[in-house]
Amino acid sequence: MRLHHLNCISTCPAGGRMMDGRSPFWAWRGRLCCHCVLAELPQGGLALIDTGLGLRDVHDPRSRLSAFFLALVKPEWREAMTAVRQVEALGFRADDVRHIVLTHLDFDHAGGLDDFPRATIHLLRAERDVALARRSWMDRQRFRPQQWSSRQRWRMYPDTQGEDWYGFKRARPLEGLPPDIALVPLPGHTMGHAGVALRGGPTDWLLQAGDAYFHSREMDLDSPGCPPGLRFYQWMLEHDRGARLGNQQRLRELLRRHGGEVAVCSGHDVEEFEQLALHAADTPATRAEDGVRDVPV
Fold this sequence. Notes:
Layout: E1 2-7, H1 17-20, E2 35-40, E3 46-49, H2 55-59, H3 61-64, H4 67-73, H5 83-89, E4 97-101, H6 107-110, E5 120-124, H7 125-133, H8 137-142, E6 154-157, E7 163-165, E8 168-173, E9 181-185, E10 194-199, E11 205-208, H9 228-237, H10 241-258, E12 262-265, H11 270-277, E13 293-294
Parallel strand pairs: 3-4, 4-5, 5-6, 11-12
Antiparallel strand pairs: 1-2, 1-13, 2-3, 7-8, 8-9, 9-10, 10-11
Family: Belongs to the metallo-beta-lactamase superfamily.
Pfam family, one: Lactamase_B
Keywords: Hydrolase, Metal-binding, Zinc
């Protein structure tokens, strides 16, 4: 299965180096990516893992995103970096994207759903439920119904059924997709948060872990850490702290035991993105990109 790595609009959060661990000390704002993965399916068509921010977000952000997050993370609005424009730059059409698999429904992961009108959207039922409820003030800022015109195409899965995947219980194969793609429940950041396992990448499997963690240092096997601002940001957004931190530990154990077979990436770490994509995070994917992974199935 051929995988393409797309950064679907960077965000520039207040806090600079305290948010990304890499910006110059004098910088007021840091830089995070929105790491999406595009898979060329063996049966034809494409599957997109998360969508980042979309065309409608670029053209009218104030009607789509909350004022709170617009000010806090200050997205870098570039139409060429939306998933649909990068899909087109790779030589495909928006209608070729038949499936979208969501780690969760935060605004910076689901903003491009409207751009793919033929896609079936796969997510955990628990995520749909918590996003629709929008019970807390923070949930009303992060979950944006304005981005969900695709709701009639959502296909939900319970997190109580599934198969074992490297010790993670209840991994779900998805309807209409090959067994090389599975939804792996990783609650904590949100109650219905999941990772997406894909057979491909630099190892046998790639686990796109979404927002289960944010910084590559959190996966350090000996001395995990996180920039203080980013640690606070995760705390601010978490639905279940124990589950979130427990799943980070499980991800580290996965790498310790199976690092030769499984690679893990998060949804926002620029360094991880560039290592997998083999091009700069501020550059859209093209047909000539070096970061394409071609893996037989």
